[in-house]
Amino acid sequence: MIPMTMLAFGAVASGNAIAAPGNPPPPPMCGGSHGFPMLHGVDLTAEQKTSLKKIFKEGHESGKALHTQERTLHDQIANQLMTPGKIDRSQLDSLVQQQSALHAKEEAARIDTAVKIHDLLTTKQLTEAKDRQDKIKALMDQIHQIDHPEHDDQDD
Asked: Which CDD domains does the entry link to (predicted)?
């Protein structure tokens, strides 16, 4: 039989483990760029910030409808795959084609948003953003080379 002190210790230890806070949430993205890294480090005017909010709001609203359609298609595909019996392959293929077309629409919407943002920025801002991205890419390439050095094919 387990002594009561051991049971009490186990209860306290497990209670502490449950009550311990997890990792904090990730920090918000800098500059409110909403997933557009080209905006990080770019100083925007008040007018540009207002226009940017409008662009993102429009994109968000149109994205909601696409997301709803995507979820419906995903559920229909899952139902096809989880239903006992023979799968109607032509119906499944049709759903997959619809899903692919929807993904293409989503990508086109993201590109449209990126073009609107591009057109909002000045030549100077675009140049600064490109220079920054080029530096980041060069650093990422260096990190990749350090993390994944090419292996020498020669035996030592």
From this structure: CpxP_like
